[in-house]
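Please, does this match?
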Amino acid sequence: MALLFEPPLSTSIANNYSSSYSQSSLHFNLLLPTNFSSFAPKSQQPILLLHHSTTTCKYTSTVCAAAAIDPPPPPPDQNRSDSRDDTAEVSLEAASTARDRQKIVRVAWEKLVRWSRSWRNKAKTDVLERTNKVVVLGGGSFGTAMASHVAGRKAQMEVIMLVRDPQICQSINEKHCNGKYFPDHKLPENVIATTDAKTALTGADFCLHAVPVQFSCSFLEGVAEYVEPGLPFISLSKGLELNTLRMMSQIIPQTLRNSRQPFVALSGPSFALELMNKLPTAMVVASKDTKLANTVQQLLASRNLRINTTSDVIGVEIAGALKNVLAIAAGIVEGLNLGNNSMAALVAQGCSEIRWLSTKMGAKSTTISGLSGTGDIMLTCFVSLSRNRTVGVRLGSGETLDDILCSMNQVAEGVSTAGAVIALAQKYNVKMPVLTAVARIIDNELTPQKAVFELMNLPQVFIYLH
C-alpha cells in the first residue's frame, strides 16, 4: 500500500534544489533511505522516492513497501565501464610505447654493431704483421703486464724486457714469470728478459718505456747509444721530474738528444694485475703524429684492450701525473675515516684543479674529462689496488712516510710528483689547494688533520679565479 504525503524538507533546501536544477528539463528520482529500518526487515524496508519536476518545481515523495513495489534497479555504472575501457586503452598504449622504445634501442644497437664490424674489417693489420721485435724498458708490474699483452698479440714476435735485477731476469727466462710482481702468472714463451741494453735494443721495432719518471733520465743516458733515431717510444710512465718539472714527452727526446725521436704517451685507467688477467681495459695513446698514434693503436688494440687516440699529449701526461697526487689525498681521507661525503668533495675539487692547470698549460678540457683524465682519476682514487691511494691511507692512519716507502716494493709516483705541484701552480698562477696540501704533508710541514681543517676553511671565492 502506497502512501502519498509532502516530504519533510525545509523551505531553504527545497529552494536550493529548485535553483540548482531550474535550467534542467530532466525528470529524475533520488533514492533516499527512510528511518523505518527499525520496524521492518531489511528485505521489506520502504524506499522514499523523491520526484522532482523542473517545470512545476514541486516535490512529492512516495513510500513503497518493498513487498508491494520493488524499487527500480540502479542504472548501469556507465562510468565504471568507461574507466575499464580507458584503462585498457592506456595499457595498450603503454605496451605499444614500450615495444616502440625497445625497437628503437635494438635498431640503434644493431647499427652500432654493424659499424664496429665494418670498422674492424677496414682496420689495417700490417703493423702487427711486420713487427718482429718489441723492447720493454723496465721490469716492474706495468712493464711486465704490457710485455705479456704485446707478446700475446703475435706468437712469432720477440718481446725482450730490459731489466736491472738479475733475479727478475732469471725468473722470466727460466720460470716464465716475474717472480717479484706476478709469481702466479705465466708469461708467453716469446717474452725474454736481459740485462744487456745492446741485445735488447738492437733491431727493435717499438720501445715501451716503463721506467719510473724520476729514474728515466739516468736510465736513458745509459742506453742512448743503442737507440735508433727512428725507434718509436711508447711511454708507460706517469709523473713529473721533480727538479725540472719535465714530462716524459720532454725527458725522452732531450735525454736521447734527438728532438725528432718518435714519441707516444700511453695512459688511462689500467691496473697491471687486471691486464695480466685479461680483463677488459680501455686506454689512450697520445701523439702529435697522428699516423704514429694510429700505428701504435694497431699494435696494442685487442679483444681485451681498447685503444683510443688523441693528439693532446700535454693533457694526457699532466692528468696522468697529477692524478697520482690526488690519489694520495683520497687515501688520506680514507685513512682519517672522514666518510664518503668528504671523499666525493675532495676528489671533485682535485679534478677541477687538474683541469685548471692542464688547460693553462695548453691541454684540452675534453681530455681531462675522458679516459686518461677522469677515468684514470676514478680508478686511482677509489680502488685499493692503487699504490698512491695506499700511501695516503697509511699517512692518514698515522704512519710516517719513510716507514711506508720502506715497506713498499713498488714506486708510488705521486710522492715525488707532489713536490712539483707547488712549482707548477706558481709558474702558471693556478691555485691548487688540495694538491698543494698533499705536497706539504709529504714534506712533513702539515699533518693530515691540520690539512683537512685548512681546506674546509678556504674561502669559496677561489673557485672562481680560474
In short: The longest strand covers residues 28-33. Residues 78-122 form the longest helix (45 residues). Residues 225 and 430 are 40 Å apart (CA to CA).
